[in-house]
Write a structure and sequence with these properties.
This protein is of the alpha+beta class. Helices cover 53% and strands 21% of the residues. It contains 28 helices and 26 strands. The strands form five sheets. An eight-stranded mixed β-barrel has the order 18-19-21-22-23-24-25-26, surrounded by four helices. Strands 3-2-1-6-5-4 form a six-stranded antiparallel β-sheet, sandwiched between helices. A five-stranded mixed β-sheet has the order 12-13-11-16-17, with helices on both faces.
Length: 752
């Protein structure tokens, strides 16, 4: 019996151990399940938030595509060829404008033109052109319905989505006007961009996002949800599917955008969970659920703190970065009136930081930056300073008056001007400081930006000084910076157009040439004159590319005019001093003429006096090569620079251009204007050169120039600069216009 109870007690302990082990395992699985659920919810939130951000990005890209479609449609809507096609049935629009090549370039899949009553005049897609209303298919029917609504409601322009022929499209409508937008509209033009493979590849290149388009019927079959839902997230084990429904122009669900993403975070979380199962089992025994949850919350809190710290601090100097600094300034601005104090931001830049790196090495440069951070911390406190970028620092100064803030800034300048001793080397540091004082209303971004502009002004004044912000700095710097950024893009994408201003020989009463004038076509369709962007192009090294672009366009236009019967019209191209003094300038010019098969006699190169003042020998060698190749040389803006008979006799110059300033002053109060013009004409005649009088705008100026032997006239009196098409038309029909002006001036038809 005793042995029986011993055996029973033994088996009881075994049972208890088994039960306890089962309880521990159950607890472990429960804790594992709970922790996975908590982590999963957090992961889901992160992944869904990331997916929502992707949808926002795609929606913004679609909106940009709508804006682009509207801009292109507007360009064609105010295009004279479109207007003339509707009004006079001129076919130039189709042959030269909306052809397959142009539409492919603008990524348009289809276009249609209607009159004011909604009658379709033409339909163009990627493969065919149909006039009138005989052809009907799904796409044309949708276009017709949209136009009917636009005509009925007298809508100026529309852009929206449609889904036809199993393709989602972005369409845009605009009323058709002439290029001057004079008079009533003459009809409508509708154009559509497909959201196809090419569009998706472009989105992937710009944003890294991949998506697909489903018809709404397919979407309903897959998900079987309420059609009023706009966004739905569907989770799978390893993938996350995001759907967004788009309504078309008729407010009907049209198509669905689908994003499919791998759940990398969740997969990583599951892998970690499996590896830590034994650890969780131990925690079940010692701390149970409470300990694990507290550990998880503490870990999440720690990681969040580390991420926030990394996002808001600089790794090198351990200072706050500009993000943290902006938040600090924003908080101070909210309470500045309550404190009854003043606030200022100093933007500090190390003037000679590049030379320090070049002379001592990057390691010394890093040490200098850390030492600057230490000195600023000693003076202002760590929470009031930040490292904005490479060698830029920010200091927030709070005092009772702006005068005290300025004095503290002077102390900063004095402190940083003291030499830095690094490994027994004494390194002098020069800094430029810009400062702006808080004025209501103003936010943190504005005051920091203003201080940066003041810093630029301090550097302009020679550096190592303090500059206080004023409104003039903001206007000038903003315009210049934005223009420089946009100019780089314009050069890369050839956002330039060439206009041509005719030159008239008044002795022959006919056009004897044109001058190629570059214009920058802005994103809104406006044309910027060269006076706005040429100086910036020279400063940032883009002027040579622009010069060669203008030359190539001029060569192509000369060849085209020769082939289409307009005639052999010489075109003059301006060249900057940077291009002329480049190593292979003459070779590049000649190579462009050879590639475009342009006769050298039909290209004139215009240079200025400054082109050879800095390097006479180099400029003379380049110009001589061009002259030997048969290219005529014109000296532009003669008399405005360092005019010298030496270079006139040395340079192979064929034309002297009298600057517009002298022409404008002919009938002004300046007594020297008329003798100067007469002298230039006489000088050119004696040197067997032709004169070109530019900027002639009235009959009196023309009379004076004709009476004193000037033959070639250029200016608004005869013609403003014209685009290539209008200039060709002027060249063919200019005779009567020139004779009328000459008759008004009382100049004989054949002036001796």
């Amino acid at each position: 019996m005793q042995n029986f109870f011993k055996k029973a007690f033994f088996w009881q302990k075994i049972y208890l151990c088994i039960i306890f082990a089962c309880i521990v395992v159950i607890f472990a699985f429960c804790i594992n399940y709970i922790s996975n659920s908590v982590v999963s919810r957090g992961v889901n939130e992160i992944e869904l938030k990331d997916a929502e951000n992707d949808l926002i990005v795609l929606h913004s890209i679609f909106n940009e595509a709508m804006i682009s479609s509207r801009r292109h449609t507007f360009d064609w809507a105010v295009f004279d060829d479109t207007y003339n096609f509707i009004k006079y049935k001129y076919n130039r629009l189709i042959s030269r404008g909306l052809n397959r090549m142009k539409m492919d370039k603008m990524n348009f899949i289809a276009a249609a033109i209607y009159d004011n009553e909604g009658k379709r005049l033409a339909f163009i897609d990627g493969s065919m052109l149909i006039y009138g209303e005989e052809w009907v298919d799904n796409e044309i029917q949708v276009f017709d319905r949209i136009i009917d609504i636009a005509v009925l409601n007298d809508i100026e322009s529309i852009e929206n989505f449609i889904y036809v022929k199993d393709v989602a499209q972005i369409f845009s409508i605009h009323k058709v006007y002439n290029s001057c937008k004079e008079g009533p509209s003459n009809g409508y033009i509708i154009m559509s961009i497909p959201i196809d493979k090419k569009f998706r590849e472009q989105v992937y290149r710009t944003s890294g996002l991949e998506f697909s388009i489903l018809s709404f019927d397919v979407y309903n079959k897959i998900n079987n949800i309420d059609t009023k839902n706009n966004i739905e997230f569907v989770e799978f084990n390893d993938e996350l599917h995001i759907y967004s429904v788009f309504e078309d122009f008729f407010n009907n669900p049209s198509f669905c955008l689908k994003i499919q993403k791998q759940r990398n975070i969740a997969a990583f979380g599951r892998e970690i969970s499996h590896k830590n199962f034994l650890l969780m089992l131990f925690l079940c025994i010692s701390l149970f659920c409470t300990g694990f949850i507290l550990l998880y919350l503490a870990q999440r809190r720690f990681f969040q703190y580390e991420i926030d710290y990394q996002n808001k601090h600089d790794n090198l100097t351990k200072l706050p970065n500009d993000l943290f600094f902006r938040e600090k300034v924003s908080k101070c601005i909210k309470f500045i009136e309550r404190w009854k104090t003043k606030l200022g931001v100093a933007f500090i830049n190390v003037d000679n930081f590049r030379s320090i790196n070049n002379c001592y090495g990057y390691s010394y440069g890093d040490i200098v930056l850390r030492e600057i951070a230490n000195r600023l911390t000693q003076l202002a406190g760590k929470e009031y300073i930040a490292r904005a970028s490479s060698d830029n620092f920010l200091v927030l100064i709070i005092a009772n008056s702006n005068k005290i803030i300025y004095k503290k800034t002077q102390r900063i300048l004095s402190l940083l001007n003291k030499p830095f001793i690094i490994n027994s080397d004494s390194i002098p540091v020069r800094v430029s400081i810009g400062i702006d004082f808080f004025k209501h209303p103003c936010d943190s971004m504005s005051i920091i930006h203003n201080a940066e502009l003041a810093k630029f002004n301090a550097k302009k004044r020679g550096g190592n000084t303090i500059s206080v912000f004023n409104k003039k700095m903001k206007t000038a710097a903003f315009d210049k910076k934005m223009l420089e950024v946009a100019l780089h893009e314009a050069v890369e994408k050839n956002f330039f157009t060439i206009h041509y201003q005719p030159k008239v020989d008044i002795t022959k009463q006919e056009v004897v040439g044109c001058e190629a004038l570059v214009r920058w076509q802005n994103s809104d369709g406006t044309l910027l004159p060269p006076t706005l962007f040429i100086p910036i192009a020279e400063k940032c090294g883009l002027i040579t590319d622009i010069d060669m672009f203008v030359l190539r366009c001029a060569c192509r236009q000369v060849v085209q005019w020769s082939h289409d019967g307009t005639g052999d019209v010489p075109v003059a191209v301006n060249m900057s001093v940077h291009s002329i003094l480049s190593a292979d300038f003459a070779e590049r010019v000649i190579r462009v003429l050879e590639e475009e098969k342009t006769p050298p006699s039909l290209i004139d190169i215009e240079i200025t006096e400054s082109s050879f003042m800095s390097n006479m020998d180099k400029a003379l060698a380049a110009i001589s090569k061009l002259h030997d190749a048969g290219i005529h040389i014109a000296l532009d803006d003669f008399g405005t620079g360092y005019s010298s008979l030496q270079y006139l006799s040395a340079m192979p110059i064929s034309f002297l251009k009298i600057d517009k300033k002298f022409i404008d002053d002919i009938f002004s109060d300046k007594a020297t204007a008329q003798p100067l013009v007469k002298s230039i004409i006489s000088l050119a005649t004696s040197l067997h050169m032709h004169t070109i009088s530019e900027g002639v705008e009235n009959i009196n100026q023309l009379k004076f120039l004709a009476a004193n032997g000037a033959h070639i006239i250029q200016g608004y009196l005869f013609s403003k600069p014209l685009n290539a098409i209008d200039c060709a038309h002027f060249l063919r029909h200019s005779k009567e216009h020139i004779q009328t002006i000459m008759h008004q001036a009382g100049i004989p038809e054949r002036l001796a």
